[in-house]
Every structure is written in structure tokens, then in C-alpha cells.
Amino acid sequence: MRISEAASRSGLKIDTIRYYEAEGLVPDVARGTDGQRCFSKENVDWLTLLYWLRETGMPMKVLRQFAALYAQGDSTIPDRKHILSAHSKLLAKRRDDLDRCDAILARKLEIYEEYLR
Question: Cα separation of 59 and 56, whole Å?
Fold first, then answer.
């Protein structure tokens, strides 16, 4: 599939896909006889994973490490699992922090409602 369809399916912008490819984050993107990128389903699945990892705040440095390990093959699965596990723990902490913020805001809104009555 063309880059526009890969972008649509993965959630990434075309420029981001090009950047990720130039940075070596997207392995094995084939080229057609016309020189255009030809993305496979596996490429799009990988791009989708990259999209969501960035959406959850994974730093580019960690994303690069993760992609480099992925490119090395299945022997790096334990290391990749460790990266994703550490990121999951960070997400859990962020959720807890956001829940606390939400509770504080809810209480402040209650105070304002009481004041306005």
C-alpha cells in the first residue's frame, strides 16, 4: 500500500512516517518499480504500534532503542518486553497522578458550586 494509506491506517502523518523511516525506526519498507514506498500489513502494524507508544509519551530515545531491538529479531524479545513493562509502569503512575488531579478539581468545583448557591 502507498504511504498515504499507511498513514491513514496507522494514525501517523506522512511526514512522520518518512521521518521514522529515515531514522531507521521502520524496517524493510519495500519500493515499487516506480521508486514509491510500498508498505506491507506488517509495516502498518509496526507504524501503528509506534504511533501509540508516542501517544502514551514514550520518549524518542526509548522508541529508538525499542525499534533497534525489534530489528535484531526474536532474540531481543525479553529486552523489548522489559522496555514495554517499564513504560506500562510509567503509564500507571501517570493515571494515578491524573486521578488525583481530577479529585482535586472535582473538590474545587464543589466548593465553587457551594459558594454560588
Answer: 9
